[in-house]
Amino acid sequence: MRSATIKRETSETRISAELGLDGTGRHDIKTDVGFLDHMLTHVAVHGFFDLTLHAVGDLEVDAHHTVEDCALVLGQALDQALGDRAGINRIGAAQVPMDEALAHVVVDLSGRPYTVVEAAWRAPAIGALPTTMIPHFFRSLATAARCNLHARVLYGEDDHHQAEALFKALGRALDQATALDPRRAGAVPSTKGTL
């Protein structure tokens, strides 16, 4: 089974996560940041990942530490579950609409963290999630997962729709990238022989 269990405890957050890459989208997510729960649910459902993630953070300060550390834990879980990354597609891309919004996400599980996020937000927050934390979530995830992650809102008017399209596209792109390709016969998808 390609799965991982991660626990992270700091003076700011306590987070536990279980991730199964070859799942059905089963999820149990509780971060006390409602919109983050909603977005992580989309990643699980549209990525066909079984994901349990529970977080307790210093929300009396703000949502920053909770959102950042959830991204780091999810990224670590992806990295651990992928192991040596042998046999995977490695690269995945998805373009997802949400009403008037359209988002595009491309992932390369290359072992090299790099992130580009392009999105224009109209409000400072969506529910309890600051919109500035959305690109920060993507950067933290890519760093811990050791992947290239390019995410772009092509257009949209509603922040909720733009964010939802981004996270759905993230799930679908990760589903493609993490999937095993039988044509690889277990080989690492790199001309270097390692990722």
Layout of strands and helices, then pairs:
Elements lengths: L2 E7 L3 E8 L6 E4 L3 H14 L2 E8 L6 H19 L8 E8 L2 E8 L5 E5 L6 E2 L2 E2 L2 H13 L2 E8 L3 H20 L17
Parallel strand pairs: 3-4, 7-10
Antiparallel strand pairs: 1-2, 2-4, 5-6, 6-10, 8-9
Helix pairs in contact: 1-4, 2-3
Give your account of this protein's structure.
The chain has about 200 residues and is α+β, with helices and mostly antiparallel strands. It has one domain (about 5-185): Imidazole glycerol phosphate dehydratase, domain 1 (Ribosomal Protein S5, domain 2, 2-Layer Sandwich), CATH 3.30.230.40. Helix content is about 35%, strand content about 30%. The chain has helices spanning about 35-45, 65-80, 135-145, 160-180, and strands at about 5-10, 15-20, 25-30, 50-55, 90-100, 100-110, 115-120, 125, 130, 150-155. The strands form three sheets. The chain has a four-stranded mixed sheet with strand order 1-2-4-3, covered by helices on one side. It has a four-stranded mixed sheet with strand order 5-6-10-7. A hairpin with a 2-residue loop joins strand 5 and strand 6. Helix 1 (about 35-45) packs parallel to helix 4 (about 160-180). The longest helix is centred in the last third of the chain and has 20 residues, at about 160-180. The chain is globular and about 50 Å long. The two termini are about 20 Å apart.
